[in-house]
Structures are given as structure tokens and as C-alpha cells.
Amino acid sequence: MGTPLQALLFDVDGTLADTERDGHRVAFNQAFREAGLDWDWDPALYGELLTVTGGKERIRHYLTHFNTDFAGPADLDAFIAGLHQAKTAHYTALLAQGRIPLRSGVERLLGEARQAGLRLAIATTTTPANVEALLTHTLGSASLDWFEVIAAGDIVPSKKPAPDIYDYALKALKLPPEACLAFEDSGNGIRSSCGAGLRTIIAINDYTRTHDFSDAALVLDQFGEPGQPCQVLAGNAVVLNGSPWLDVSSLQRLHGGG
Ligand code: XBP
Ligand code: MG
Fold first, then answer.
1. Of all atoms in ligand 1, which is nearest to the CA of residue 15?
2. Of 79, 108, 140, 247, most Cβ neighbours within 10 A?
3. Model confidence over 27-38: pLDDT tens digits?
């Protein structure tokens, strides 16, 4: 018998909640307007900008590839950092208004995992304050303690697709990747989790459905819950054993090599 399943590591943006189009994108645009900039990231452009993870990195990528005429200030780093700080304030305010719900099956799966004694962690490129706001305004502030490790943002020098954030979380959990499963939604996300040696389950979304998930153990349209069954898009559907949603028994089977 191999290493038993001990922990689940979750990405946040796109995986726990569909935060990008109606959350992060809107907050970026609010910060731009507030700074007197006429930049407008529409949903299609934002999809292209999502190839780069991290908000500060995304603004810089926009300036070097999409808005090359912009004559930035001498201290571009400070300018970007200031814009990004404003964006974080707008984003957390959107979450506080309850504008972004969790995806189908997330609350159910977290609850079942806790009941089964599985340890939980987060590995994300987003700013720690954003994770705190999302959890607080969806599951309540007590849910912050459900996660033994919240690895987020600039805590590692290289963001996804680098494996660093997952390596960091595994080290904090003191677990080998073989004892864990990762949950992701994007190509950059799975490159990061698989780079850290983690078997990965994907729940796609509108921005990521065409990404390369050939390394995934399972690709779903959502985790699913009563009334919202999940669809297996790739991988071994047998691990679900007929369940209409991803449950802990499915995870155990998947971990066991199913
Ligand atoms: C998520 C991201 C994040 C958010 C913005 O990637 O790319 O950058 O869009 O967050 P992943 P910040 O889901 O792969 O972790 O602005 O706080 O950086
Ligand atoms: Mg993601």
C-alpha cells in the first residue's frame, strides 16, 4: 500500500470561486480609473492577460505587450505597486459585498474533507488579503482556521507556473507530495502543482477550458453537489463510482491510483 492521503491543497482564483472576470478584472479597472488612467481591461483582453499570474506582474505585462506607448513614471515599480494596492482594496470591497460566491461543490467538499480528517492548505498567487476576504465573506471568518497553511502572493519569489508556492505549502505541512492532492483550474496552475510532484484535479472555467490539462489526474467541469452533478471531461470517470459529485471516497480512489 502506498502513502495514505493526508492533505488537500487548493488554488483559489478560478478554483474555489470564479473571481477573475467579475472580481479581479473589475477591481483593476476601478484602480485604473481612480488613478486617472484610461485603461480598460475588457473580458476578452483580460483572458489574454491571464497568461501571466500575479496582479503586479499582469500590469507590467500589459505595459510591455499591449500598451507600449504609455510613458510611465521614472519609478515604474512603485507606480505598479501603488496601482496594485488600490486594486486589492477594490477587490476586497467587492468580496465584502458578497459579489463572488464559491463554486459549486467547494463548501461541500471542504466540509467532507474536514470530517474525514484530511488536512487542508491553500497555494495561490493572489495577495493574502484577498484569500482572507474570500473565505471570510463566503464561509465565515472561522474558516480561515480550516486551512493549516495559506501560502499566497509574494511569499515566494516565483509565482505559478513555477512550483515554488506548492513546494512552500508542502514544506509547511511537512508532507511529501505523494500524501496530497492538488485542486486547480488553469494551465499555469497545473504546471505549478505537477512541478511540485502533486497529483492534480482540475475544475475548468470559461477562461481555462482550452488549456492543456494532459497531466491532470481528473478534469471536471465543477466539483458538483446535489442538483449540480459534475461532468468528467478527462481522466478515469470510474473513480467517482457513480457519484454525481466529487467526494472524499473518489479522492481516496484517485489517490490510490484509480
Ligand atoms: C491567480 C492570479 C491572481 C489574480 C490577482 O492565479 O493570477 O494574480 O488574478 O491576484 P492562480 P493579485 O489562480 O493560478 O493562483 O492581484 O492579488 O496578485
Ligand atoms: Mg487559478
1. 13
2. 247
3. 999 999 999 999
